[in-house]
Amino acid sequence: MLRSPGCSPCTVGALILVLLAAIPAAAESTGSPWTLPGEGACAAARPPAAEDVAELPFSPGDRVPVERLELLRPFLAKDVWSVRTQLFAPGTHIEIGPCFRRYPPPAHFVEATARYAGRAKVLSGGGLEGVPAGLPFPAESIAVDDADAGTKWAWNAVRRYRGAGRWGEVRLTYIDAGQETAHLEGDHFVAWLLGRSDLPAPEHRPSWARRDRWVSGGRTRDPSSSYRCAFRHARRASAETGDDAPDDLFFRSSAMRRPSRVAWDPEFPLLTCAFQRGYYLPRGGRVARHRWRVAGVRDLLAPINVSTPAFPTDDARDFGPSGAALGADRWELRRTLTIEADGGSIRRTVDLETLFPLFHAEGGTQPSVVIVQTGRWSEDRVDYPAGADGSPVQVVDPAVRVLISPGSGEVVRIETYETRAVAPRGKVERRVISFSALERER
After folding, report:
1. Which neighbouring-strand residues pair with 216?
2. Angle made by CA atoms 389, 428, 259, in degrees to the nearest 5
3. Which of 66, 190, 229, 261 sits a CA distance of 20 to 30 A from 77?
4. Rounded to two decimals, what is the model's pTM?
């Protein structure tokens, strides 16, 4: 049942500041800012310093009207609050999910993390070496006063468990001031090849994979025209050590006779291509290109396991007047970690348990771009296939993401609701991800 905060505006302001307190305050009380609350422990939904918070102003199962969004403000990321008019459509409700539900990685990933603990090393330039599989830096190994703490968490986010990658259908919608300007559909993949804990040690890779950490690719078409495009994008494993050699990136459109190498070197894996320009999201960039710091650990509401279908399950879902309304869905209370780079001009907030990327902003305190990502827990999905070793995959897959330009009204929405972290088997996967496959695209 919803409860009124029962406090004055001044108290609310103080409460928000307390909830957004810096890590050292949390560290003094717990010894580690990375400690997760117990599953379902709603009473623990605040940093230890927030003693003025008597109870949450909401409970799991509540449906909070958007008109009462102020009630949730202390538990919404500041970047979410900055684009609230686009994310939360009038007349809708936010479903409050469970507090600190567990989304654990599979046993083989946990075992690999333990087996190789202590081997990972941050290089002087911010690169990474020494870890064959698993999480590079277990939370308990990162000291709050470690000068490399931000970089270690950035690498953890890159190397978090993601199964075999991402495979599925995609729809991109470009929106300007509430009006759809382009609409593209297709398929996409990101194939993780090296460091796979579900594949036998010591190689932890498919037998045919050699130098590439991952290969991404996809193809899209514009339903209103004959325009089509396809691409392949690969990053070598050596890039993790700080080698800034350009990625291999090839593109082909229906207007081209053959694929062409792209000179542009994107920081992040491409998701798909549209009108001869790539579109990408912050889901595994070149960590060493930036200097990272930990900005805070906070308990926030986040759409980590949504329940409302989108494309391709529901290709008519209403995303509100802005085209970016993700608020009318399930938002759960999560312990989150925020890291910043380049003096705060880049800000990423991830779920502390899964390291799934939730929010991303660029442009400092007045961001020029805000990205909100929603996920789906594989174990809640019917008929989700097993992994390469036959075990449950246990992964949070991306479902819907929106890129919002707060000052312009421009939105890009990406729907991948049926994406799965399981690759085609054997030779089929190798054939699909090969660069030569672009020769067959027409």
Report:
1. 190, 233
2. 135
3. 190
4. 0.89
